[in-house]
Amino acid sequence: MIGRRESVSGAHFAFTDRWGGVSAAPYEELNLGGAVGDTPEAVAANRKLAATSLGLDPARVVWMNQVHGAEVAVVDEPWGTRPVPEVDALVTARRGLALAVLTADCVPVLLADPVAGIAAAAHAGRPGMVKGVVPAAVRAMVELGAAPERIAARTGPAVCGRCYEVPETMRAEVAAVEPTAHAETSWGTPAVDVSAGVHAQLDRLGVCDRAHSPVCTLESGDHFSYRRDRTTGRLASYVWLD
Ligand SMILES: [Zn+2]
Q1: Contacts of 99 (CB under 8 A, 6+ apart)
Q2: Domain range spanning residue 50?
Q3: What's the gap in Å between 160 CA and the centre of ligand 1?
Q4: What's the gap in Å between 79 CA and the centre of ligand 1?
Q5: C-alpha of residue 232 to centroid of ligand 1, in Å
Q6: Transmembrane segments in this chain: where (predicted)?
Q7: How many domains, the chain?
Q8: CA distance 225 to 144
Q9: CATH number at residue 168
């Protein structure tokens, strides 16, 4: 259910694994993604199970329509009947409102400045990292009063740089923007390390309180991996402030 959970000065970070939900194969068990072919009933039940296990009201968890871009939405209440925006980062100054990001190999990025009461969740796959979705989220936080030196950043389970094989030209394109993302697979072919790129971006912005998950989704049978399984579920990562 909840693979990892951490609290820092009233900021809460949580990352699910694939177990403990009601979805049938190939989405078993805790698929939290609504656009992957699973039944809406199962996804709703799973979202309720995950929120309840975290002590959250499922109606106070804010999701987004992720499109591998770098747009940020500032949110202070659940969407309700409004359309869910196509963005890859959410920022809130509302304590108690949880922000959620869906992934299955991409890097989920959770950010919080507990002093200012500002939180953010971002979806950083290779395109989003290159486009700068995480720096965009940090800038939006700063505009609301956050300070980079107070921001705690946690990245969750994602495909690792030793598994994320890409064509040589793609690696070169990514490395031209973010050199630290240049990687090589364990079998010696070109690769990209998106998590390393995200952490380098955060470091340059002065966000020093950072930690990353040791879990590689492609290597872990306890996590969904799009690269491994193609038709599969989505993990969720949650951030909120007391
Ligand atoms: Zn790996």
Answers
A1: 61, 62, 75, 90, 91, 92, 110, 119, 120, 121, 238, 239, 240
A2: 2-241
A3: 4
A4: 35
A5: 17
A6: none
A7: 1
A8: 34
A9: 3.60.140.10
Q: What is the pLDDT of residues 3-41, one digit of tens each?
A: 999 999 999 999 999 999 999 999 999 999 999 999 999
Query: How remote is the CA of residue 196 from the centroid of ligand 1, in Å?
Result: 13
Among residues 45, 47, 37, which one has the least CA distance to residue 16? 47
Mean predicted lDDT score pLDDT of the chain: 98
pLDDT (0 to 100) of residue 5 = 96
207 CA from centroid of ligand 1 (Å)? 25
State the distance from the centre of ligand 1 to the C-alpha of 13, rounded, in angstroms: 22
Q: In whole angstroms, what is the distance from residue 36 CA to residue 178 CA?
A: 30
Ligand 1 centroid, distance to 127 Cα (angstroms): 19
pLDDT per position as a tens digit, 77-129: 999 999 999 999 999 999 999 999 999 999 999 999 999 999 999 999 999 99
At residue 20, what are phi and psi to the nearest 5 degrees? 100, 10
